[in-house]
Amino acid sequence: MDAKNYVEKVLDDVKKRNSGEVEFHTAVDEVLHTLIPVLEKRPDLIEASILERITEPERMIYFRVPWTDDSGKIHVNRGFRVQFNGAIGPYKGGIRFHPSVNQSIVKFLGFEQIFKNSLTGLPMGGGKGGSDFDPKGKSDAEIMRFCQAFMSELYKHIGPDVDVPAGDIGVGGREIGYMYGMYRKLANASHQGVLTGKPLTFGGSLGRTPATGYGLLYFANEMLKDKSTSFKGKTVAVSGSGNVAIYAIEKAQQLGAKVVTCSDSGGYIYDEEGIDLKVVKQLKEVEARRIKDYLQYRPKAKYVEGSTNIWEVKCDVALPCATQNELDKASADKLIKNGVKFVAEGANMPCTLDAVKLFQTSGIYFGPAKACNAGGVATSGLEMTQNSMRLSWTFEEVDEKLQGIMKNIYAASKSAAKEIGDDDNLLAGANIAGFLKVADAMVKQGLI
Predict the structure, then answer these.
(1) Which of 92, 107, 116, 128 does the annotation list as catalytic?
(2) Distances, alpha carbon 170 to alpha carbons 98, 167, 400, 413, in Å
(3) Does 268 reside within a domain?
(4) d(CA 394, CA 196)
(5) Do 337 and 247 share a domain, yes or no?
(6) C-alpha to C-alpha distance for 214 and 290, rounded to whole angstroms
(7) I need a labelling partner for 182 at 20 to 30 A (CA). Which of 212, 272, 301, 362 fits?
(8) Are 151 and 246 within one domain?
(9) Which of 303, 302, 316, 310 is closest to 330 using CA atoms?
């Protein structure tokens, strides 16, 4: 069977066996089609049925999470953990608390994590987890009780050398702290390396909070340098106002760019003079308020209802940092007409496949999420290293290592793209570079 037919057969089987899991289908589709040139050169991987194996999780864990709210009412949520591929190291990937979380979302994120973790050069396999629990509007006590209930089942399946979860949407240092405390109690062991994104007082790493946003800019900066330009004087549109967006804005401003937007689920802010990051941090990190309240501090700014409308703005660089599928083909068309030259994904697959194709066919230099936003998991890997060594590095040491990792990811993606004769196709390059390391490890470890 030739490579193209093999890919189409596997993709068809994935869709039939995982019926209705649209997000997972999209992730697999995006990766598999870019691997055809590699499989043409490596028929041994077809003979080893490597795609059938790599698209099937090694383990899928589903469990109920009963908890009580402050009034004593019982609630039941669903908990998930996918341990997708451990060929190159312990499973590694975040925990997401959001009403949208389901098996498809978790599998899509876990599948992406395989290649993202591989690209970092660190020994980490791919995993992901979460719950359909919504932390918004919950008290600290309710969140603590939920985290403890969640960990009372999850702890059986994780460990520093088995599976190392981290935070994601809805899960920050507070939630990681509550989960670690429950794990420590149940396991009767101080395995600090079992979770990353911990507070600094018990094994957390300096530089972890800004790592995804900073890493995005370090990767994007390589993209601009490759085209003989820089962020200095560039106009940048950023979506989101969470952790990734905030620190992407911060680093972009440090590199000399003018960031003119940020958003939340209600709408977006356009500040022609440049986003006042102190205001955004106060609203989001301190007061947990909506982004529209930005106008109370910056009345000359403009607020527009509907977060997807953000891509109507004129910019040189677009950094989607909110959530998956936030930037569709129509939005991509608007960005192109308004002069965008570079797009780098800060969230997990925020651009639809149609949008990505339009960027690529229109000459827009596109950076895929699995490469661009790998800074978070890379720094989580550095936190694991520090935990194993029982020491802490300075912020400067962590940031220097992060910059090196992101530059290496760009170089590996670019090199793999050149190998297939499509120099600017960083999406294919990142997929191929991440895939080959994992595939070779799977083949050498035998049929397991």
Answers:
(1) 128
(2) 6, 8, 28, 30
(3) yes
(4) 17
(5) yes
(6) 24
(7) 212
(8) no
(9) 310
C-alpha 293/C-alpha 187 separation (Å) is 44
Tell which of 352, 367, 382 closes a domain: 367
**Judgement on whether residues 186 and 215 belong to the same structural domain of the protein:** no
How many independent structural domains does the chain possess? Answer: 2
- The residue whose two tokens read 């077809």 is 46
Residue numbers of the domain that contains 285: 211-367
- The distance of Cα 215 from the centroid of its chain, to the nearest Å, equals 11
Q: Which residue has the tokens 């979860």?
A: 165
Tens digit of pLDDT for each residue in 153-167? 999 999 999 999 999
Residue recorded with tokens 């703005």: 313
**Cβ neighbours of 231 (radius 10 Å):** 23
Helix (H), strand (E) at residue 375: helix 375-389
Burial class (CB in 10 A: 0-12, 13-18, 19+), 372: buried
Backbone phi, psi, residue 93, to 5°: 170, 160
Closest-CA residue to 327 (of 304, 303, 355, 357): 355
- Is position 73 annotated as part of the catalytic site? no
Do residues 252 and 123 both lie within one domain? no
How, if at all, do strands 365-367 and 261-264 pair? unpaired
Nearest CA to 252 out of 268, 236, 239, 264 is that of 236
Position 308 scores a pLDDT of 75
Question: What residues of the chain score a pLDDT lower than 70?
Answer: none
Say what the pLDDT of residue 348 is. Answer: 87
Say how far apart CA 145 and CA 68 lie, in whole Å. Answer: 7
Q: What is the pLDDT of residue 256?
A: 98
Give the C-alpha separation, 140 to 257, whole Å: 37
Sign, Cα dihedral of 193, 198, 200, 201: negative
Whether the model clears a pTM of 0.90, i.e. scores above it, the answer is yes
